[in-house]
Amino acid sequence: MNPELVSQIASAIGVAWGAYSAIKASRAHTRTVLLSNLFVALAMLLLVRLIADYGGWTSWFIYVWLLCLGAYVFGVYLAARAWSNLPWTTNGAAAKRSEMTGLGVSAVMTLAVAGALVIPGLVLG
Fold first, then answer.
1. What is the DSSP string of 74-122?
2. pLDDT, tens digit, for every residue of 38-57?
3. Residue 66 CA, distance from chain mean position
4. Is the pLDDT of residue 125 over 70?
5. Per-residue pLDDT for 1 more than 80?
6. Are 59 and 4 in contact (CB under 8 A)?
7. Cβ proximity of 40 and 18 under 8 Å
8. Residue, of 118 and 37, whose pLDDT is higher
9. 86, burial (CB in 10 Å: exposed 0-12, middle 13-18, buried 19+)
C-alpha cells in the first residue's frame, strides 16, 4: 500500500473519532466530563493537522476533513447549549477524582500535541 494512503486513512479515522468526541460531549453529565471530551476532540484535530497529508482538492481526504470540521462545529454548538444545565462535578469523592483525572489526561494530551505543532517552528524559525 501507498504510505500516503495509509497516512490519510489513519488521519481520517482520527479526525472522525475527534468529531464523534465533540458531538458526544454534549451528553456528558457534568461540565468536567464535557470539557474532557472537548479536549480529546481538540487533541485529535491537532494531531491530524500535524501528521496528515491533505493532497490538495483532488484528494478524498480534504472532503472528509471538511465534513468532520462541520461535525466539530456542531458538537461545540451542542456543548454550548448543554453547558448551563450541567453541574461542575458529581457528588462522590471517587467520581470527582475520576473526572479530574480524565480532564487532566485530556488537557496534557492536548498540550503535548499542540507543543508538537509549535516547537519545531520555534526551533527552525
1. HHHHHHHHHHTTS-SS-SSHHHHHHHHHHHHHHHHHHHHHHHHHHHHHH
2. 988 988 888 888 888 777 78
3. 15
4. no
5. no
6. no
7. yes
8. 37
9. middle
All three cell numbers of 70: 462541520
**104-109 contact pairs (CB < 8 A, 24+):** 105/36, 106/35, 106/36, 106/37, 106/39, 106/40, 106/43, 107/39, 109/39, 109/40, 109/43
Q: What is the pLDDT of residue 96?
A: 83
Average pLDDT, the chain: 86
The arithmetic mean of pLDDT across residues 20-32, rounded, is 90
Amino acid at 41: A
Pair 1, 58: CB distance under 8 Å:
no
Q: Which one-letter amino acid corresponds to residue 43?
A: A
HSE, CB side, 13 Å, CA atoms: give it for residue 7. 14
